[in-house]
Amino acid sequence: MASFSEYTTWVEISRRAYLHNLQAFRRLVGPAVELTTVIKANAYGHGWKPIATLAREGGIRSFAVHSLSEALQLREAGFTEDILIMSQPLATQADAVVRHNFRQVVYTLPVAQALSEAARRHQRPARVHLKIETGTYRQGILPEELPSFLTALASLPGLEVEGMYTHFANIEDTTDHSYAFLQLERFQQAMEVVHAHGFQPSKIHTACSAAILLFPQTYFTMVRLGISQYGLWPSRETFISYSHAHPQNGRHLLQPVLTWKTRVLQVKTVPAGECIGYGCTYQASRPTRLAILPVGYADGYDRRLSNQSYVLIRGRRAPVRGRVCMNLTMVDVTDIPGVVPEEEVVLLGSQGEESVTAEHLAALIGTIPYEVVTRINWDIPRIVVD
To answer: What is the pTM for the complete model shown?
Structure first.
């Protein structure tokens, strides 16, 4: 077992839970569909390098990232797997895209032209994936612009149209999936246009985590597994929809991968009637034993958790008292006997029979679990544990 005695704050990544989740999704999509793991934004806060290493161990052979810099980070760390960059680069960055053999989303002609020129210089094809706008209205080629775009693309040498894809706007936050099916229909119409212009992309992908869980008809030849590889449901609605279809499996399908821990810095007694923290937002109604933790909003522990949340110490809940500070948080351990400095504290995860979930913290601050884990300070060590 690894020793964490040198850390005051750290994140543990469960190898067992992560590989369990990968195996669950491999069973869902089957062996013929390419399972691509999305490790953008520091692997949703879990640590890009340990997650990429575990994904490789779990048989993953392709990654998806947001930016060229994330893709280069993986290459420089020795990852030779296919990497899809899901945001367009600057035209001046096309050379690096081709040189490192990345898969590159394309939806504007200037970038396509830059990739074509880079392909000529390097004498190797530029692997492009066409992003089709079907109703999310972020990145993508509008349906009415697709024919002229494809005509222009056909005149550019060196481009290998390897893939095409879209992204669903409203598949997670609802149990009414009619809009998602409208987008799927628009995408299938776009496929016909692409084929009519002589392109035969082999990597067709629409499915994010929620779509993988709910709709096999979205798989095509490739899926993009995001939040749920980390053991988190995309939304409560997705969990409800999946559990309704699979009543025996829903509760245990996913296992959270991340546990965020810290240590007690100091324990002190606050007299009854005294106030705690900035703004005097909490007044002790009794003599209170207070534990001071070296974590705050600069570390990603949201200030809106002030006087709302709790942490786990000795397997019991310790409520947050007063405002969360930039680098410190105070918790009430009056009812937890024997707490001492340097004792382990769980901010997010399980301890004994209790747990603090990303869903719970997200509900307290009015956001989604994605934000809770992604905002954990990237400089905090991520340690893989068995």
So the answer is: 0.95
